[in-house]
Amino acid sequence: MLDFLLTTDAIMALLTLTFLEIILGIDNIVFISIAANKLPIEKRAKATNIGLLLAMLQRIILLFFVSFLIGLSKPFYILDTSWLKVAVSWQAIILFAGGLFLIYKSTSEIREKVESPQHDENQLKSKKITSLKQAIVQIMLIDFIFSIDSILTAVGMTNNLHPNHNYNLVLMIIAVVISIGIMIGFANPIRKFIDVHPSMQLLGLAFLILIGFMLITEAAHLSDTQFFGETVGAIPKGYLYFAIAFSLFVEFLNVRINKKRDKKPLL
């Protein structure tokens, strides 16, 4: 187990996944803060921390469930036509449906953030919360909604890194625990950074489109899909790591250039 966690692929997957979990968790932090801020001041921090810890437990349970489904790789139906051949399994169905969901969700989120960024926040603000129990329940419901794309992202980043699904599951759990821990300890600084640089969150959503497409191709590869006799190959995860790293490098340069431009005195 330790040998696997120290491999280059595992470390890259862990770093990338933790980063994405944090970036994608910004909305979660915002909505949790809105729910907690309806309580008296002395209860807000308690509600936020308890809510995030229960959210972490909820995500780990969901990871076990999804990982179990992905482990069902034995085909239960084979479609064989003159132009298409597919060995359908639950693993392929989950990966394919998850890929489609990530592409749909991230595209919808990008559109919403550009055209009506305050829509969901205004809806949540209109809901009444009068007790700590109500706030925690609300936080759990919010996190469940955000857990779906988070878990699918984790699956996309770790699937087939190791033949033993339990090893991949441990890697996903470590990333979730680290990201939730960082959100608990640095929620406000992270949120302020994203407020100043909203393009980072849009970039994270764009990464989800890449991961969604990778899940679809992986589903086709694992189900031995053939189009007109041509087999669908899996996309090496190194390509994804390079795309993400290069995009972040470009964004870093943009941030540095904008800072220098802002500091430059006007003539």
Number of domains: 1
Shape: globular
What's the total helix number? Answer: 10
Uncertain segments are none
Largest sheet data: 4 strands, antiparallel
Strand order of the largest sheet: 1-2-3-4
Quaternary state of this entry equals single chain
Helix content: over 70%
- The succession of helices and strands, N to C, reads HHHHEEHHHHHEEH
Structural class based on helices, strands and sheet pairing: mainly alpha
Please state the CA-atom Rg, rounded to the nearest Å. Answer: 20 Å
Number of strands: 4
Keywords: Membrane, Transmembrane, Transmembrane helix
Membrane topology: Multi-pass membrane protein
InterPro entries: Integral_membrane_TerC, MFS_trans_sf
Family: Belongs to the TerC family.
Descriptive report:
With 267 residues, the protein is mostly helical. The model has no long low-confidence stretch (mean pLDDT 78). Helix 3 (26-36) packs antiparallel against helix 7 and helix 5 packs antiparallel against helix 9 (199-222). It is globular, with a radius of gyration of 20 Å. It has helices at residues 2-5, 8-24, 26-36, 41-70, 90-115, 119-125, 132-158, 165-196, 199-222, 237-263; strands at residues 77-80, 84-88, 226-227, 230-231. The chain has a 4-stranded antiparallel sheet with strand order 1-2-3-4. The chain contains 10 helices and 4 strands. The chain has one domain.
